[in-house]
Amino acid sequence: MLDPRPPVFSRSKLWIGSIILSLLAVYLLAQGLLARSADNLQLKELADKQSVRTVKVITPTLSPASPSMDLPGRIEAFSKAPLYARISGYLKTWKADIGTPVRAGQLLAEIDTPDVDQQILQAKAELAISQANAALSENTAKRWQSLQTTGFVSAQAVEEKMGDLRAKQAMVNASQANVNRLQAMKNFSRITAPFDGVVTARNTDIGALVNVGGAAGTELFVVSDVRRLRLYVQVPQNQVTAIRTGSQAKFTVPEKPGKVFTAKVQSMAQAIQASSGSMLVQLFADNQRGELLPGGFAQVSFDMPTQTEHLNIPPSALIFSKTGLQVATVNADNKVVIKPVLVAKDHGIRIELLSGLESTDRVIENPPDGVMQGDLVRVAVTENKK
């Protein structure tokens, strides 16, 4: 016969069971925490890896320096005169349009000046009055001088009449000076060419209101002497010793492809511009045939006296910034070092440098946007020499 009472567990067995369950829970919790920590570490490593940009680096190649140094230049007219109005009025007529050759003193335009015309008439009338008063005063003074010899008038009275005569004569001189001033102003109503040249700008038309000018943009005409031209070039500081006054240079212009012109170094600024690190050099070029245009761009080539080796990099390695051309390099700690460079010549597929790099520098071949000094990068491949 079975015992209907439930089995009785001992206290020791219950205690052992609870300990086993607790240990199992602790083990499962530890395993979860370890797995989570491993996942976080893996995610952190992945994020760090993605935050460091990968770049490809090259080393500059050596090549003999070019026998010439090519630099951009700007062509300007030998003489350039903006002509402003010195008198107000309305433009009556103009005689020369843009591109018209003119001679010194040739009439370019006339200004109608009704106000000044009336002022001249008024000044001439005042001059006539002062002359009449001076003539009357002169006759009076002569009579009083003759009366003084007879004793009818005193010496004091004669001196007063002579003083009045001198005052009236001074008023005549002042009135005459005013007439001369207004007539000189009237002469400014004729705009004439200051020298032989070409009209390169006309900024007015018939009937336009003309005011006394002097500020930029208010000139009526611009006359330029284009028979000779000035050519301005900025020469890098480390190359200024190769340029001599009187030496010849060759240059080309975009509108005359394939044609080479010559210019002569006329003067040098003898000072380095702090903003660009270069010296301004002025050259003269003959333009009797009128083939060259003032204000245009030119590519100037100077012969170099020495042959030295220069470093070459691809054009993609250059960084254009407001401070000039720069190149991004990678140091031994895989950090970016930005270096300013000077270009000697652009060969299209390669850039020949004057200075800024060493032959052992690791140059980023195609620097990513926003690369900054000190950025940590990852080098994708070992350096290549091209």
Task: Report strand %.
Answer: 25-35%
Number of strands: 23
Class of the largest domain in CATH?
Mainly Alpha
Question: What assembly state would you assign to the polypeptide chains in this entry?
Answer: single chain
CATH-assigned homologous superfamily of the largest domain: Helix hairpin bin
Please state the average pLDDT score.
85
The percent of residues in helical segments reads: 25-40%
Which architecture of the largest domain per CATH? Orthogonal Bundle
Please tell me about this protein's structure.
The protein is α+β, with helices and mostly antiparallel strands and about 375 residues long. The chain is about 30% helix and about 35% strand. It has three helices and 23 strands. It has helices at about 10-50, 115-150, 155-185; strands spanning about 55, 55-60, 60-65, 70-85, 90-95, 100, 105-110, 190, 195-200, 210, 220-235, 250, 260-270, 280-285, 295-305, 310-315, 320, 325-330, 335-340, 340-345, 350-355, 360-365, 375-380. The strands form five sheets. It has a six-stranded antiparallel β-barrel with strand order 4-11-14-13-12-15. Strands 2, 17, 18, 19 and 22 form a five-stranded antiparallel sheet that branches. A hairpin with a 4-residue loop joins strand 20 and strand 21 (about 350-355). The mean pLDDT is about 85.
